Automatic annotation (TrEMBL), chain A:
<dbReference type="Pfam" id="PF00005">
    <property type="entry name" value="ABC_tran"/>
</dbReference>
<dbReference type="InterPro" id="IPR050086">
    <property type="entry name" value="MetN_ABC_transporter-like"/>
</dbReference>
<keyword id="KW-0029">Amino-acid transport</keyword>
<dbReference type="InterPro" id="IPR030679">
    <property type="entry name" value="ABC_ATPase_HisP-typ"/>
</dbReference>
<dbReference type="GO" id="GO:0005524">
    <property type="term" value="F:ATP binding"/>
</dbReference>
<keyword id="KW-0813">Transport</keyword>
<keyword id="KW-1003">Cell membrane</keyword>
<dbReference type="GO" id="GO:0016887">
    <property type="term" value="F:ATP hydrolysis activity"/>
</dbReference>
<dbReference type="GO" id="GO:0005886">
    <property type="term" value="C:plasma membrane"/>
</dbReference>
Automatic annotation (TrEMBL), chain B:
<feature type="transmembrane region" description="Helical">
    <location>
        <begin position="103"/>
        <end position="130"/>
    </location>
</feature>
<keyword id="KW-0472">Membrane</keyword>
<dbReference type="InterPro" id="IPR010065">
    <property type="entry name" value="AA_ABC_transptr_permease_3TM"/>
</dbReference>
<dbReference type="Pfam" id="PF00528">
    <property type="entry name" value="BPD_transp_1"/>
</dbReference>
<dbReference type="GO" id="GO:0022857">
    <property type="term" value="F:transmembrane transporter activity"/>
</dbReference>
<dbReference type="InterPro" id="IPR035906">
    <property type="entry name" value="MetI-like_sf"/>
</dbReference>
<keyword id="KW-0029">Amino-acid transport</keyword>
<feature type="transmembrane region" description="Helical">
    <location>
        <begin position="150"/>
        <end position="168"/>
    </location>
</feature>
<feature type="transmembrane region" description="Helical">
    <location>
        <begin position="26"/>
        <end position="44"/>
    </location>
</feature>
């Protein structure tokens, strides 16, 4: 059974139709990369999946739970999803360790020691062992983003959602973050990644989705969508991304 | 002006740097010094100030008792103000139009009427509603209160000051909450935290940096505003001083007594304010300092 099953998803902001019927199913262990031009609705799609945006119509099943059902406890459903933002969004008043433990304790009701243990394990995993007591502003962008990934992982999500996790980073810091994501993928984590990193999509994604104008224009294996796109719009987009100077 | 640099004469030797002279400043300073000397001279020599009377009353039991009431009023009113302000601010930002409407009305009403009127109003609420009771609205009542006992004069004064302060504090708190990046709330939502937890654990602590410095100013201002409760004989410093000079007609020295105490208290609070502001600006200066490791 699919971990995520989206069908007929529509979302508008006022008169602006941003999503016009998205269908997507993600199997356990899948890595799906979403690419597409700015404004095509990629972020909105991810944000609908954990209800940071309320969809207008359509269904979103996460682990068999219908998210748009008003009787469903959103906070409960969200625990299955980890989200990583372009702007990191670490809690700026808390230490790195507290960033990783607060939701474990307040949401999952884990004991302090269990939360700390989980947090330390995940910090080590993203290469930030020893940064427990730093505050976010003392970390580089790449370190902040890896801490944010560790924070999401500490909730033991079934699916990780990434919204352009490397777009706000200096180029030399991108590799560290992509490295951590690749490692997660290798461990079998189910991931939906909105990204402009075509190399990463090619090497790590099981499936690539090309979105434009609020619809999925083309999808398939990375080699096919990026290497041999069938649709004209995909070809135009890729040409611009891969050879921006032409 | 484009050609002005070209037309400037070529400089053959370096110009000697001469500090700009400010003769005006020296004149102004001299005038101020003379004025200050005149004030001090009159303070010391004009017998109307009656410094010996000031000395007699500065530490008298009634004045110190009034001082204690002033301190209590300030603390209690600020407590109501801050707690109420947070409540009103959170309500104001609610998605529920009725809840935010009530909060808007509260701020509108309490900011739109003089605090003096509110103090008098709350002090005499007992005349308006001699009995308060708990029960089903428009139905049977279970518990009765004699509101003159429930809200004695002092409590009336505290309520008047505190409820008014809550309206002003709510604006300060609201600005603080709005200053927190929405990404913080989104990250917390994505982690499954409830709205209440997000507010108390994530948003309000970060809003404190913006909320605390003006709250210090409000406290200093409140200390002085408490003197208004003298109109309902609230028993504060100013009430006592008024009662004393009502008896002995030594208005000037007793007003000096009151002013000296107010000055001392506000000065102490200002020092506290300085340290609080320094502490709460730390977060930003670390950020400005870059990657401190
Ligand atoms: N909260 C909002 N209110 C109004 N319009 C919005 C809102 N969020 C997004 N939009 C609009 O919806 C459209 C799609 O936005 P979205 O962020 O999903 O695009 P995207 O594909 O993620 O683009 P990018 O690559 O620039 O991040 C844009 O035109 C954007 O301006
Ligand atoms: Mg986006």
């Amino acid at each position: 059974m699919s971990v995520i099953e989206i069908s007929g998803l529509h979302k508008a902001f006022g008169p602006l139709q941003v999503l016009r019927g998205i269908d997507l199913s993600v199997e356990r262990g899948d890595v799906v990369c979403v690419i597409g031009p700015s404004g095509s609705g990629k972020s909105t799609l991810l944000r609908c999946v954990n209800l940071l945006e309320q969809p207008d119509s359509g269904t979103i099943l996460v682990g068999g739970t219908e998210l748009t059902d008003p009787d469903v406890d959103i906070d409960l459903a969200r625990r299955k999803l980890g989200m990583v933002f372009q702007g990191f969004n670490l809690f700026s008043h808390l230490s790195v360790l507290d960033n990783l433990t607060i939701a474990q304790r307040k949401v999952l009701r884990r004991s302090g020691s269990e939360a700390v243990e989980t947090a330390r394990r995940n910090l080590a995993k993203v290469g930030l062992a020893g940064k427990e007591s730093a505050v976010p502003s003392q970390l580089s962008g790449g370190q902040q983003q890896r801490a944010a990934i560790a924070r999401a992982l500490s909730m033991n999500p079934e699916v990780m959602l990434f919204d352009e996790p490397t777009s706000a980073l200096d180029p030399e810091l991108v590799g560290d973050v992509l490295g951590v994501m690749r490692q997660l993928a290798d461990e079998g984590m189910t991931m939906i990644v909105v990204t402009h990193e075509m190399q990463f999509a090619r090497e790590v994604a099981d499936r690539v989705l090309f979105m434009d104008g609020g619809v999925v224009v083309e999808q398939g294996p990375a080699e096919q969508v990026i290497g041999d796109p069938q649709e004209e719009r995909t070809r135009t987009f890729l040409a611009r991304v891969l050879n921006p100077l032409k | 002006m484009a050609g002005s640099t070209d037309s400037a004469p070529p400089r053959s030797e370096p110009i000697a740097a001469v500090p700009v002279r400010h003769p005006g400043r020296w004149v102004a300073a001299a005038v101020l010094l003379v004025l200050a000397a005149m004030v001090v001279h009159s303070l010391l020599t004009n017998p109307a100030w009656q410094w010996s009377v000031v000395g007699d009353y500065l530490f008298s039991g009634r004045v110190l008792g009034g001082l204690l009431v002033t301190a209590e009023l300030t603390v209690l009113a600020m407590l109501i103000g801050v707690v109420g302000g947070v409540l009103i601010a959170v309500m104001r930002l609610s998605n529920n139009p009725i809840v935010s409407g009530v909060a808007w009305f509260y701020a509108w009403f309490f900011r739109g009427t003089p605090v003096l009127v509110q103090i008098i109003f709350w002090s005499f609420i007992g005349f308006l509603y001699p009995y308060l009771s708990l029960g089903i609205p428009f139905g049977p009542e279970f518990i009765f209160f004699d509101s003159n006992k429930l809200i004695p004069l002092f409590m009336g004064a505290v309520l008047g000051l505190g409820l008014n302060e809550a309206a002003y504090m709510s604006e300060i708190v609201r600005a603080g909450i709005l200053s927190v990046d929405t990404g913080q709330t989104e990250a917390a939502e994505a982690l499954g935290m409830t709205r209440t937890k997000i507010m108390t654990r994530i948003v309000l602590p970060q809003a404190m940096r913006v909320i605390i410095p003006p709250t210090g100013n409000e406290t200093i201002s409140m200390l002085k505003t408490t003197s208004l409760v003298a109109v309902v004989a609230g028993g504060d410093l100013f009430t006592e001083v008024q009662l004393i000079y009502g008896g002995n007609y030594k208005q000037i020295p007793l007003l000096v007594v009151a002013s000296l105490w107010y000055l001392l208290f506000t000065s102490v609070l200002s020092v506290g304010q300085y340290y609080i502001e320094r502490r709460y600006s730390r977060g930003t200066s670390v950020q400005a300092g870059g990657n401190v490791r």
